[in-house]
Write a structure and sequence with these properties.
- The structure is a single chain.
- This protein has about 70 residues and is mostly helical.
- The protein has one domain.
- Helix content is about 60%, strand content about 0%.
- The radius of gyration is 17 Å and the shape is flat.
Length: about 70
């Protein structure tokens, strides 16, 4: 169980991390503060990273786990 202070700290850190994700509106160079767009972009970035890990592990027979 988290205390109220711990919850506030974690929430602040998550907000800072989400604000570092560049999300631009389609067809413009304007950044958006839309939470749903940021979460969707984060999901796509994580999915891309996991996919690339599989490419290295399967295709190149490289173990991406730390020793």
């Amino acid at each position: 169980m988290l205390t109220e202070h711990q919850t506030m700290v974690i929430s602040g850190l998550m907000k800072r991390l989400l604000n570092q994700i560049p999300v631009k509106l389609v067809g413009t160079n304007e950044r958006t503060e839309d939470f749903q767009a940021k979460i969707s972009n984060l999901y796509m970035l994580l999915q891309k990273r996991v996919f690339m890990k599989k490419v290295f592990e399967i295709t190149l027979d490289v173990n991406m786990n730390k020793a």
